[in-house]
Amino acid sequence: MIVSRYVIVQLIAAAVGAYLAGKKGRNWIIWGLLCFVFPLSLIILFFLPRVFATGVTKQCPECGRIIPHDALRCEFCRKDLPIEMVQCPKCGKFVPEGQSCPDCKH
Asked: Which domain covers residue 14, as residue numbers?
């Protein structure tokens, strides 16, 4: 009975560790395994800063801190972030990043 409770705690620690690592731009698989083996490593992960990871995090143009990729406002300097526009590869129209093109639906 005690062993099964410890395994449940390990699985919860692994899930939370993987989630936190993914949000901070770190490798969620490695941190999930590490938190499964050593549940107290969650404390270390909690205090680690975010790292730049393409598609997960980005750098604030005002203060230079690492913030989540989908943030509309910097959580450190509270500045509104500009909307990043990308060019549609099919028709060439500029659309906000992460949205489909309204003309060609690509």
From this structure: 2-48
Q: Where are the beta strands (DSSP E) in the chain?
A: 57-59, 66-68, 85-87, 94-96
pTM (2 d.p.): 0.60
List the alpha helices (DSSP H) in 24-71. Answer: 28-37, 41-47
Radius of gyration of the chain (CA): 19
Question: How many domains are contained in the chain?
Answer: 2
pLDDT at 10: 93
Amino acid at the residue 24: K
- The answer to whether residue 106 is domain-embedded is no
Question: For residues 74 and 4, what is the distance between their CA atoms, to the nearest angstrom?
Answer: 42
Q: Mention every residue, 6+ apart, whose C-beta is less than 8 A from residue 105.
A: none
Tens of pLDDT, residue by residue over 79-91, are 887 666 667 777 7
